[in-house]
Amino acid sequence: MKTPVRVAYVVLVSLVAALAAVGIGAIVLTILGADVFQTYKVILTEPLKDLFGITEVLVRAVPLILVALGIAISFRAGILNIGAEGQIQMGVISATAVALVWPDLPKGILVPLVLLGGAAGGALWASIAGYLRAKLGVNEILSTVMLNYIAAQLYGFLLRGPMIDPAELQTGSGTPQSVRLPKSAWIDRIIPGTRLHWGIVLAVVLAILVYILMWHTTWGFKMRAAGASPKATRYGGINVESCLFSAMVLAGAFAGLAGAVEVTAVHRRAIEGISSGYGFSGIVVALFGGLHPGGIIPAALFFGVLLVGTDMTQRIMSIPANMVSVLQGAVILSIISAKMVINDPYAREKFARRFLHSKDKERGPGGEGIPEEHGAQNEETVNIEAKQ
Amino acid sequence: MTILNIVLNILSIGIPFSVSLLLASLGEMFNQRAGIFNLGCEGIMSMGAFLGFMSAYYLQNTAMVPYANLIGIAAAGIAGALLGLLFALVTVTFHAPQGIAGIGLQMLGTGTAGTLFRHFVGGVAGVPGLSNRPIPLLSEIPFIGPVFFNMNILAYAAFLFVPVSHYILFKTPWGLKVRAVGTSPRSADTMAINVNRTRYQALAAGGLLAGIAGAYLSLGQAKMFADDIVAGRGFIAVALVYFGRWDPYWILGGSLLFSIAQSLQLSIQVLGIKFPYEFAVMFPYVLVIVVLAFTRNSAIKGPSELGVPYDREKRI
Q1: Residue ranges in chain B whose pLDDT is less than 70
Q2: Is residue A189 helix, strand or coil?
C-alpha cells in the first residue's frame, strides 16, 4: 500500500479509537448529568494550571513509569503481569522493613539498600506467578490477580499487626500504618513545598536502561523473541520458560521499586491504600506507550494528568474519581482494537480499495506480509494524544 | 451434635454463596466453549450488582415494589449481555488479545459501577432484596431441609440451570455450534456455521449470566452494594471453568467447593478461633492458585482454540 494511504488509514483508525474511548467516558458522564465538555476540559487542563498541579502530575508519573516499564517487559515476553498492585505493596513492605531495621546507616548506603529491598520484595512476589506459569503452566493473569487479593490481605495484616506504629497503639487510634521512616532513608524533594522528588530522575534513567536491555542485549532479545513466537524461539534453542520467568521477576522488581519510591519519597511511612491503583494504571500506561520506554514516559505524563484531573473534578465538580477507571478501561479496549485493525493487512487493503481507489489491487493481500511492529503503533499513540 | 450443627451451619451459608459463582462460571463456560476467554466477567458482575441494587433501591417506595427485584435482575442481565457484546466487538470483530481486553472490560465495568454508585447513592444503603422461599414439605425434612430447600428463587433457578445448560451445550444444535467454533472454527466455517455470529451469541449469553450473577450478589446475598462487592469472584469464576473442565456439573461441584471454603472461613472468624482474619480471607484466593496448579492437565479437555481469534481471511 502506498505510504499516504497508509498514513491516512492509521490516522483514521486512531481517530475513531480515540473518539470511542472519549465517547464511552461521555456516556457515563451524561448519565451522571455532568457537562461532558466542561468535565474533560477540567480533567485535561486544570492540573497544568499551576506549579502544584504540574508537580503532582510528575509525582504520579513516577510510579506509573516504573510499573509500566516492568509491565512492558513482561508483555513483550508474552507473560501478562496483572499483579503489579500486589507487587507494589510487597515492595512497600520490604522497603519499609529494610529502612526500619538499619536506621543508622548513612544515607548514601541506606537509600539504595531500601530501593533494592523494595525491588526484591516485588520480584519475590512476582516470582510465584512466574514459577507457576513457567513450570506448571498456570495462567498468569489469574494467578497474578489472585496474588493481588492475597497481597492486599497480607499488607493489611502486617500494618494492623506486626508493623503497626507503637504510637498508634498507645494513643488507641489504631490507624494501620508503620512508624515514620528514618530521615536517612528518605528520597529528597526537588522543589521545597511540593512533593516532586528525585524519583523522577531514577524513573527516566531506568527507562533508558530498559530500552538498552530490551533492544540492545541478548537477554532482552531472547525475552522479546519468547513473546513474539515461543515456538520459533524454542526451536532456536532459547529456553522460553526461563525467559518468561525472568521477565515476570523483572516486572515484579519494577513494581516493587515503584512501591519503595512511593514510601521513601512521598508518604515516608507505609500506609493503607499506598498503591492506589498504580498497578492497573501502569498496564494502561504501558499499552498506551506502545510497550516501549520512549512511549511510556509521555504516556505516564498523560495519565498523570488524568489521575490528578479526576481528583480535581471530584473536588470541583463532585464527579467521583472512579471516573478515571472508566476512562482507563475504555482506553485499553480502544487501543488494542485500533492496534489490531491498523496491523490487519486485509482490512487495510479493503480500506484502500474502497475509499481511495488505490491502483495496487493486483498485488493482493498476500504480498503485503506482516507489517512492521512499532512504526504504526507509535504513530497511533501520538495521534491519540494529539486528539485529546 | 454440635459438630453436626456447625457443619449444617457452614453448608446453609455456603450453598447460597455458590450461586453467584455458579452463574458466572456457567456464563464463562459458554464463552470459553466458543473459544473466547472473557476475563471481563468481574466488570460485568460489578455492573450487574450495581444495576440490581439500583432498581431495588429506587423502586422500594413505589407501587412497583413487587417487581423491583425482577426488574433489577432483568436490568443486570441486559447490561451484562450488552457488555458481552462490547467484548465481542473488541475480541471477535477486531481480533484484539483477549486477556488484555478482559482487564479493560473489568476496569470499565467496576469503574462505571463505582462512579455511578458514588454519585447516585454515596453511602451505605440496604435494600430488601430477595427473600427466602422455603419449599413446602421438602424444607421440613430434618437437617437437609433447611440447608437445601430454604433459598431464594434465583438460587433455585441457578441450580436448575445446571442440567439445562448441560442440555443446551451438548444436546442442542446451538450448543454444537458453540463447541464447534471453539474447537475448530475453520471447519465450522466450512460447514457454513457463522463463527463470528456464534461467538457473539455465546458472549451475549455469558454476559447475561454474569450480569445476573452480579445481581444475585447485591440482591440475594449482601442486600447492599459496595465498590468491592464482587471481590474477585469474576476471576474465581474464570478459574472454576478450568477446574470444572468446561462441564456444567463439574463447575457446580467447583463452585460448591469454593463457597463452602468461604463459609468455613467465615465460621472460623465467628467461632472466635485465634487466627488473624486476614489469613482467613486469603484462603479462597490461595485455593484458586492451588486448584489451577493441579488442574493444568484439564486443558486437554478444553476447547482447543481458546483465546485464539478466528480470522477467516488468514492463510494457514
Answers
A1: 1, 272, 296-300, 315-316
A2: strand
| Cell numbers placing B111 | 469503574
d(CA B271, nearest CA chain A) in Å: 20
User: Which residues 157-216 of chain A have a CB within 8 Å of chain B?
Assistant: 157, 160-161
B307 within domain boundaries:
no
Is-contact A125 A86, C-beta < 8 A?
Answer: yes
Q: Say yes or no: B105 contacts chain A, CB-CB below 8 A.
A: yes
| CATH assignment at residue B218 | 1.10.3470
Structural domains in chain B (count): 1
Q: Provide the β-strand partners of residue B224.
A: B126
Please give the average per-residue pLDDT across A299-325, as a whole number: 91
pLDDT tens-digit series, residues A175-232:
888 888 988 888 889 888 889 999 999 999 999 999 999 999 999 999 999 999 999 9
Q: How far apart are the C-alpha atoms of A105 and B49, rounded to whole Å?
A: 52
Top residue of B285, B298, B316 to mutate, by most chain A CBs within 10 Å, is B285
Per the domain annotation, does B130 fall within a domain?
Answer: no
Question: Does residue B222 contact residue B229 with C-beta atoms inside 8 Å?
Answer: yes
Q: Give the number of C-alpha atoms closer than 13 A to the C-alpha of residue A318, restricted to the C-beta side.
A: 7
pLDDT of residue A388: 34
Cβ-Cβ contacts under 8 Å, A364 against chain B: none
Residue B101 covered by a domain: yes
pLDDT digits (tens, 9 = 90+) for A258-267: 999 999 999 9
Structural domains present in chain A: 1-34+321-388 (no CATH), 58-318 (1.10.3470)
Domain extent at residue B243 = 7-122+135-141+149-301
- Per-residue confidence (pLDDT) for residue A372, from 0 to 100: 42
- Window 130-149 of A: residues touching B by CB (8 A cutoff) are 132, 136-139, 141-143, 145-147, 149
**B309 domain residue, yes or no:** no
Cβ contact B238–A330 (<8 Å): no
Global confidence as pTM: 0.89
Which secondary-structure segment (H or E) carries A111?
helix A107-136
